[in-house]
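Researcher: I'd like a structural prediction for the single chain below. Treat it as a standalone chain; there are no partners to consider.
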Amino acid sequence: MTHASDPRVLVETANLRDLGGLATTDGRTVRTGQLFRSGHLCDLEVPGRATIDALGLRTIVDLRRPTEVARRPHPDLPGCEVVGISVSDDDNEFAVVANAMVDPDAEPLGPDHITSYFRTLVTDRLDRYRTVFEVATNPDHLPLLFNCTAGKDRTGVVAAILLRILGVDEDTVMADYLLSNEVRRRWIETAEIDYRRRIAERLGTKPDEVPENRMASLWALLYCRQEYLEAILETAVDQWGTWTSFVAEGLGLADDHVATFRAALLH
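Model: Treating it as a single chain, here is the predicted structure.
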């Protein structure tokens, strides 16, 4: 099922979309049918599975933790290699916020906590992502899909950096990142109702009496926010001086490797 407002969205329920079709600052366009982002793929209905099969994927880079993979394994895709590269721990900041959200005695945590986490991806945790970019920027692995569970946070980080490497401007990159909020809106609305009920039970109150600060913690988890991605893009330049230096020194991608990737993906 495609998304009415953006034809790049190929399977809405999986937050699956093609990164092709976006323009770069030098007047070129990212090729379609080569680079895809998504959430988990284990619950695909027949049309969605047919869409996946038609992509002709050669590689999937799975960013999830082993426990997540075990709960929602990928469907069998003949001829496609699944490369598992877990980029987060079980006790990451998202888990901390989630636990605090339903603990009546815990201080509610909101967007600032998540923004800080995104910033530390660049300052302290980049080693977890280097292999991801080494694999994803190798044309021999195309067509390639990368995914996490919801296809918005870990996947959003990888998508944004790859698009910036390809020369897509920051406004367009940000729009692609925030598109997950629209694609996942039905799921978000359902999750809000469910979590409000659960939080109310834990707090001993009615759902319509749940304090807004508790909901703010939930919204920090459910939504992509501009400040999250800005924290990564700005910190990358702050740490390495320029975007080019970040790619070369931070991600460890040589100039000729980047040039080959760009040549394969742009026209």
